[in-house]
Amino acid sequence: MASSAALPLQQQLESQPAHLPCSLIVEYRKGQTIYDQHRRSTSLYLVVEGSVKVSRIAEDGREAIIEMYQPDEFFGESAFLNLDQCSEQATAHSNTKLMAWTTSALEEIAMQSPCVAMALSQILVRRIVSLTERLESFNMESIARRLARSLIRFSERQGTPEEHGWVRMPPLTHELLGQYVGTHREIVSVYMSQFRRQGFLQYSRKIILVHPESFRT
């Protein structure tokens, strides 16, 4: 149900009192498409619960993951570009609850509350910086190093600290990790086994335990 309560615009920007009005919450089942190249995004979304995979489909049909979004993170900013054709798609990676604001609604909110516009701009700029760093990593680093960086990043965003420097996070398939770092599932499996032998991580179908400091040494 819609609420008149204000929704903080991401925790890291709380120093600026930027708020969005709460919207209706929409639920998606695991694997359900939120938008794709046939039904493009017209809204900015906020993950309330669950997780969302945003990816692009290449001409040869291969999928490349742009990002995995968790609770309190926004996605769908491609809606602001108003493109006739867009190869981006968003899929519920687990059972997910989302809030959404159309671009026209956000433009009106931003006109009335400049701090919201500033906060959104900061979020999008940080996202551009992060994607630029990933592109540089693709050009300059080995697959093993890209995979290690990705595991550290996922542990920082999704993980729960455990004893002795370990971080517990939800399971990620080797196929998904391959799509994220730009390689095949079989290659990811080889490096994941190597990392486990080296004591950098532990994993099963239900959990991944990462020791970030071991990767950094």
Shape: globular
Q: Helix count? A: 6
CATH architect. name of the largest domain: Sandwich
Main sheet summary:
4 strands, antiparallel
Q: Compute the number of structural domains.
A: 2
The portion of residues forming beta strands comes to 25-35%
Detail the poorly predicted runs: 1-5, 11-17
Query: Which value, in Å, is the CA radius of gyration?
Result: 18 Å
Give, in order, the helices and strands. Answer: EEEEEEEEEEHHHEEHHEEH
- Give the helix/strand class: alpha+beta
The counted number of beta strands is: 14
Largest beta sheet: strand ordering: 3-10-5-8
Task: Give an account of the 3D structure.
The chain has helices at 103-112, 114-140, 143-158, 174-181, 185-197, 212-216, and strands at 6-8, 19-21, 25-28, 33-35, 43-49, 52-57, 63-69, 74-75, 88-92, 96-102, 160-161, 167-169, 201-203, 208-210. α1 crosses α2 (114-140), α3 (143-158) packs across α4 (174-181) and α4 (174-181) crosses α5. The chain folds into 2 domains: 6-138, Sandwich (Jelly Rolls), CATH 2.60.120.10; 141-216, Arc Repressor Mutant, subunit A. It is built from 6 helices and 14 strands. It has a 4-stranded antiparallel beta sheet. With 217 residues, the chain is of the alpha+beta class. Helix content is 36%, strand content 27%. The longest helix has 27 residues, at 114-140. It is globular.
What's the SSE blueprint?
Blueprint: E1 6-8, E2 19-21, E3 25-28, E4 33-35, E5 43-49, E6 52-57, E7 63-69, E8 74-75, E9 88-92, E10 96-102, H1 103-112, H2 114-140, H3 143-158, E11 160-161, E12 167-169, H4 174-181, H5 185-197, E13 201-203, E14 208-210, H6 212-216
Antiparallel strand pairs: 1-2, 3-10, 4-9, 5-8, 5-10, 6-7, 6-9, 11-12, 12-14, 13-14
